[in-house]
Design brief:
Blueprint (H helix, E strand, L loop, with lengths): L2 E5 L23 H13 L4 E4 L12 H5 L9 H9 L6 E7 L5 H14 L4 E6 L4 H4 L10 H19 L7 E4 L4 E3 L9 E2 L4 E2 L14 E4 L4 H10 L2 E4 L4 H17 L8 E11 L2 H12 L4 H11 L24 H14 L3 H11 L3 E6 H12 L6 E6 L4 H16 L12 H5 L8 H6 L1
Parallel strand pairs: 1-2, 1-13, 2-3, 3-4, 4-9, 9-10, 10-11, 11-12, 11-13
Antiparallel strand pairs: 5-6, 7-8
Pfam family, one: Bac_luciferase
Protein name: Monooxygenase
Keywords: Flavoprotein, FMN, Monooxygenase, Oxidoreductase
């Protein structure tokens, strides 16, 4: 079955989504609004919802006027939000972004173990290393650590977190009132980690998660990111725009997974797909043009600058080509994807920011349920994707259209489920439950 994530920033993915006549600009801080979105995704039998996050306002702006035009400035902290949503949903997986650069392993292990218990085994962790100086400046730094250093820390971070999730064996807690034994001391394991970045004794003061470990999601496509994914990830959210690009990435990453001694089937690759779907082609095109007409040039240029690694491109002619720009410490794979798009399609800076305003560098699909399903099916059946992280144009209308139009077409073709077969996120994704100590044994 094709795996589907619902990527749900509050207003939607289009840079002008918050200005759409039907959108809720204040939705980022409205729990009832988010509850409605997640329930819609659950009605569509999505495997999981996916919430991205950053440790600060992640945008490039020159002045207050430019900042004031942005549409995604404030939103809930995702772990808090997903913990609340856990009691208002029954099946859909709940995946949140959390950085290894600006957190401590014990805190993260405790949070995700708690979410897994609260949701009865539906939590997922999108592991990121963060990518902006704006975030660094909120954590006692003037600039972010360099790319390789962030991944070096992340690898040790994962060793500590998985070790903490294995503090207690699955059946450690006896709760035997008659004998007075709360737990079996032989099934308690003290981590005692001392490494380059962390010194963590343990144990974790949360029992082993229902899933063993929450599902590990990762979104980096750089060489460091791919190596990290091949070792740790179980779901990979990635950025490709053409079938050839996707096949090269898919086959390459699956090989790296095997080289790490893992089963390639235990890693699901989900490229992002920005989707505008209508009952007719004309309706879909009208929806898209409505949003494109709302793009503020100041916001479009600022958003493109952010996607290119926070470089200032305001001094270049908007109707000229994108020049060669210096490399940055941001998301290097995303930057390269956007450069490739500009050159492949011969886009000016203005045309490029309008193109990126939709999918922010991800694959863009527009059409009827049948034509969009054709394109998703082509990638799924030709070693380019195990599924997709679906990116609605705006909320709630864009997500409603995907659930009401596209999902039934995929179900008719037998590509996605009509009912949930299991209850945990691992069961949805067809992933094995890690045995106690699995990560430590793999590291040896």
């Amino acid at each position: 079955m094709m795996k589907l994530g619902a990527f749900l920033p509050a207003p939607g993915h289009h840079v002008a989504a918050w200005r759409h006549p039907e959108a809720r600009p204040d939705g980022g801080l409205d729990f009832d609004y988010y509850r409605s979105l997640v329930r819609t995704a659950e009605r569509g039998r999505f495997d999981m919802v996916f919430l991205s996050d950053g440790a600060g306002v992640r945008t490039k702006y020159k002045d207050a006027d430019e900042l004031s035009r942005q549409g995604r400035m404030v939103h809930f902290e995702p772990m808090t939000l997903l913990s609340a949503l856990a009691v208002h949903t029954t099946h859909i997986g709940l995946t949140a972004t959390c950085s290894t650069t600006y957190n401590e392993p014990f805190t993260v292990a405790r949070q995700f173990a708690s979410l897994d218990h609260l949701s009865a085994g539906r939590s997922g962790w999108n592991v990121v290393t963060s990518a902006t100086d704006a975030e660094a400046r909120n954590y006692n730094l003037d600039k972010q650590p360099e790319h390789a250093a962030r991944y070096h820390r992340a690898r040790e971070f994962m060793e500590v977190v998985t070790g903490l999730w294995d503090s207690w064996e699955d059946d450690a807690f006896l709760h035997d009132k008659e004998s007075g034994r709360f737990f079996d001391p032989e099934k308690l394991h003290i981590l005692g980690h001392r490494g380059e970045h962390f010194s963590v004794k343990g144990p974790l003061n949360v029992a082993r998660p229902p899933q063993g470990y929450p599902v590990i999601v990762q979104a980096g496509s750089s060489p460091d990111g791919q190596d990290f994914a091949a070792r740790w990830a179980e779901v990979v959210f990635t950025v490709q725009q053409t079938l050839d690009q996707a096949q090269v990435y898919y086959r390459g990453l699956k090989k790296q997974v095997a080289d790490h001694g893992r089963d390639p089937e235990d890693v699901k690759i989900l490229p992002g797909a920005f989707i505008v779907v209508g009952r007719t082609q004309a309706e879909a095109e009208d929806k898209y043009e409505t949003l494109q007409a709302l793009v503020d040039p100041v916001v479009g240029l600022g958003m493109l600058s952010y996607q290119l690694g926070m470089v200032d491109i305001s001094g270049y002619p908007l109707d000229g080509p994108l020049p060669e720009l210096p490399a940055t410490e941001g998301s290097t794979s995303k930057q390269q994807t956007i450069y490739d798009q500009a050159r492949r399609q011969g886009l000016t800076i203005r045309e490029l920011y309008l193109a990126v305003a939709a999918g922010r560098g991800h694959r863009f699909l527009l059409g009827t349920a049948e034509t969009v399903a054709d394109q998703l099916q082509e990638w799924f059946e030709n070693e380019a994707a195990d599924g997709f992280n679906i990116m609605p144009d705006y909320h709630p209308g864009g997500l409603d259209a995907i659930v009401d139009l596209l999902v039934p077409e995929l179900q008719r073709r037998g590509l996605v489920r009509t009912e949930y077969e299991g209850s945990t996120l691992r069961e949805h994704l067809g992933l094995p439950r890690p045995a106690f100590g699995a990560a430590a044994r793999a590291a040896r």
